[in-house]
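ok new one. same drill as before - structure tokens go in, u give me an amino acid for every spot. 211 of them this time. try not to just spam alanines like last time pls lmao
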């Protein structure tokens, strides 16, 4: 009887420790963006150009200034007539209007079109995954991106990950907030209810299990 009581006590203590390892003190991440206030409308998201992106610039009737360029690490590009044009954080349409403004000094009423490729985006828009992911990295944000999309991109969890102790850091109404997510249930348990929408600039933190 004493042995049984002692075994029960040990089991209860172990359960408490395990709960502490896998639990999460943060509020759950809203599964839908409609359940949380935002300073901008996610449905109106437009891709913003960032360092490393490739831009195809076409200036109508002016092939000599039409070219493909790569956005430099400082966020600028150089064209044949204009040097150091800041483009990081702008949409391709905004960049086209800026190029037209710059070229108007040399060309009468220039009409420019800008096509982006590479799709790295500015650092502030990238989704970062750190900790016990198989391939921790930064990902360019894509429209309607979800936690499941993120975890597929990083190859899932490591064997040491505390997936249900993971969290997402997000800027909401100008303030940094941290939310809990159940990555173990989502990735290994197949619980689609644990999926949630991701926003540009989100940081996914996956801690290591205690044992």
């Amino acid at each position: 009887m004493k042995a049984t009581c002692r075994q029960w006590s040990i089991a209860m203590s172990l359960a408490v420790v395990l709960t502490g390892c896998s639990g999460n003190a943060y509020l759950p991440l809203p599964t839908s963006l409609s359940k949380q206030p935002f300073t901008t409308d996610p449905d109106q998201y437009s891709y913003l150009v960032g360092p490393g992106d490739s831009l195809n610039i076409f200036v109508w009737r002016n092939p000599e200034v039409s070219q493909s360029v790569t956005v430099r690490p400082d966020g600028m590009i150089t064209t044949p007539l204009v040097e150091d044009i800041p483009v990081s954080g702008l949409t391709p349409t905004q960049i086209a209007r800026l190029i037209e403004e710059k070229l108007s000094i040399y060309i009468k009423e220039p009409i420019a079109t800008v096509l982006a490729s590479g799709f790295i985006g500015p650092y502030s828009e990238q989704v970062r995954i750190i900790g016990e992911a198989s391939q921790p990295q930064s990902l360019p944000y894509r429209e309607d991106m979800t936690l499941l999309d993120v975890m597929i991109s990083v190859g899932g969890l490591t064997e040491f990950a505390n997936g249900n102790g993971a969290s997402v850091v997000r800027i909401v109404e100008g303030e940094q907030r941290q939310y809990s997510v159940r990555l173990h249930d989502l990735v290994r348990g197949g619980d689609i209810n644990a999926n949630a929408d991701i926003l540009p600039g989100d940081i996914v933190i996956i801690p290591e299990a205690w044992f």
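The chain has two domains: 31-44+123-206, 54-117. and btw Residues 1-22 have pLDDT under 50 and may be disordered.
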